[in-house]
Design goal:
Distance between the termini: 20 Å
Strand order of the largest sheet: 5-4-3-6-7-8
Helix content: 25-40%
Oligomer: single chain
Number of helices: 8
Largest sheet: 6 strands, parallel
Structural class: alpha/beta
Strand content: 15-25%
């Protein structure tokens, strides 16, 4: 571990992933979102492995869910975004896809959150914007945030950037992050690597790292 001015400066995955200072965010692993990607079973399997390793290591775990507002509560930007995603030109044709308590809103049952794990709903792409997540992380003294889920190019990248701006090290378990558009996801990965804020890993390495941590 590098040190300066009395501070530890993590450089490696193992140095960053102290289970007492690490949290795992499972991003938008919802039934209706998984239907929109090409390899949902593969992503669910890898996220499940990461989740199991994090639970075994005592890592704090937060699930995020993307929520649609009913049309009566949607504003200008909500309509613009929905029109772009749904590829319609008329706002009257917009259909809220992720209304609370609809089947598509639910977290996929393979990853059922435990009572000891939080579920936060959001309207935004960053998991840290407009949700209680930042407050919870700060209150627990979290310094590293591991990210898995869907989608790399839509939510994982902005969450990683937001975490870095808050002084939290983002760890991206890349093969446990699904994508709606493979080329866009690759651009997100390359951009994050260029910025240098995030630590990139894969499911095997992340799980091994947690398993090697002292109990």
């Amino acid at each position: 571990m590098k040190r300066v001015s009395g501070l530890d400066i993590p450089q490696t995955l193992a140095e960053a992933c102290d289970p007492q200072r690490l949290a795992l965010v499972v991003y938008d692993m919802q039934v209706g979102i998984l239907r929109q990607i090409k390899n949902p079973e593969e992503v669910v399997s890898r996220v499940s492995r990461v989740l199991e390793a994090a639970r075994a290591a005592g890592v704090r775990i937060f699930f995020m869910r993307h929520m649609s507002l009913p049309k009566e509560l949607m504003g200008t930007f909500a309509y613009r975004m929905a029109m772009a995603w749904q590829r319609v030109d008329d706002p009257n044709e917009v259909k809220p896809w992720f209304l609370r308590d609809t089947p598509g809103f639910a977290i996929t049952p393979e990853l059922a959150p435990r009572p000891s794990e939080a579920i936060f709903d959001k309207l935004t792409m960053s998991a840290l914007e407009g949700t209680p997540l930042e407050i919870a992380l700060r209150d627990c003294g979290i310094t590293t945030l591991a990210l898995v889920g869907v989608a790399m190019e839509i939510g994982i990248e902005p969450t990683a950037r937001h975490a870095a701006d808050l002084g939290i090290i983002p760890v991206i378990v890349a093969d446990a992050c699904g994508a709606g558009h493979a080329e866009a996801a690759q651009r997100s990965i390359e951009s994050l690597k260029f910025a240098g804020d995030a630590i990139f890993t894969d499911t095997d390495e992340f799980c091994r790292t947690l398993q090697r941590m002292p109990a």
